[in-house]
Amino acid sequence: SATKEPHIVLLDQNPAPSKHTAVPLPWPQRFAPQTGAQLVGNDAATRYLSKFLSSWQVRMALEDGTAARTADVKKKRKRRASACSDSDGSDSDFESPRGGCRRRRSCSSSSNAMNGCLLVGPVGSGKTAAVYALAEELGYVVREVNSGDKRSGQAILSLVREATQSHRATTGKPTLLLFEDVDVEEDKGFHAALRTIVESTRRPVILSANSSSAAEAWQSEVEVVGFEAVAEEDVELVVAAAAKEAGASLPAEVVKEVAAAARGDLRRALLEGQVAAA
At 229, phi and psi to the nearest 5? Predict the structure, then answer.
């Protein structure tokens, strides 16, 4: 809300550019939030996404055997294996699309949560920022597949399996799969493969879209979380704070103009604020 003072954090791994740096880091990256509390606007959506990712941590602990193996948990796992034919000993984060239990919801007897989550909202409303901030806070590695990547059905199936296995081996952290702009992809093979991934995943899958039509197409298969354009007052606060942190001179009237022109697109406002401060 407009009354909450935003927390703008300069990333330690991306310090202010020196005189030897040819291109300064864009402000949206330089001041990217690192926790849910640092996100501005869409508080309810952020809490819902955090709850979704936290519930996945419980599911992964049970499925990976990192939780205490009590007798009760063993019985539940045995019942789940019998019902879903899901315990194949595979090291993959995805079940085979042939056989087994292809489900959109968890097979766990203690959870009826969806496997995937769709974030729907206008450009610059903070969907991607929320995913990365919460992933950092909760200990996930994000594997992003955006519209600039090769996204045929076979390509994303291969890419996802390789990425999840390599990240787990090198970082020890679970992988969070992020598919950006699913509403602009027209390849039928992509959508079929994406549904296979959502049905068979053992790791959280998050989709993002700008159009409400995506919510209609996916609402029976994933959780749908709506994001709204960031309030103009909040955009002003963020741009002003970023300019201050960057040591740039940006008059209040310019900040207001930038915020008004952005129409709730926080990423655009930060980029235009950086240009105005140059």
Answer: -60, 140
Q: Does residue 257 carry a pLDDT above 50?
A: yes
Q: What gap in Å lies between CA 133 and CA 147, rounded to an integer?
A: 21
| Confidence at residue 73, expressed as pLDDT on a 0 to 100 scale | 54
Counting Cα atoms < 13 Å in the Cβ hemisphere of 102 gives 11
Q: Give the residue ranges of DSSP H helices in 70-187.
A: 71-84, 127-138, 153-171
Nearest to 143 by CA among 154, 135, 133: 135
pTM: 0.77
The amino acid present at 117, given as its one-letter code, is C
**Position 66, amino acid:** T
How high is the mean pLDDT of the chain? 79
**Do 246 and 30 touch, CB atoms closer than 8 A?**
yes
What letters, b where the CB count within 10 A reaches 16 and e where it falls short, cover 215-249? Answer: beebeebbbbbbbebbbbebbbbbbbbbbeebeee
Of 201, 195, 166, 161, nearest in space to 63 by CA: 201
pLDDT tens sequence across 144-192: 888 766 677 777 888 777 766 655 656 778 889 999 999 887 777 888 8
In 10 A of CB 116, how many CB atoms?
24
Answer with the residue of higher pLDDT: 203 or 1.
203
Instruction: Show the CA angle centred on residue 255, arms to residues 249 and 259, nearest 5°.
Output: 150
CATH topology classification for 43-226 = Rossmann fold (3.40.50)
Q: For residues 153-183, b (16+ Cβ closer than 10 Å) or e, as one string?
A: bebbbebbeebbeebbeeeeebbbbbbbbbb
Q: Residues 113-138: pLDDT tens digits?
A: 689 999 999 999 999 999 999 999 99
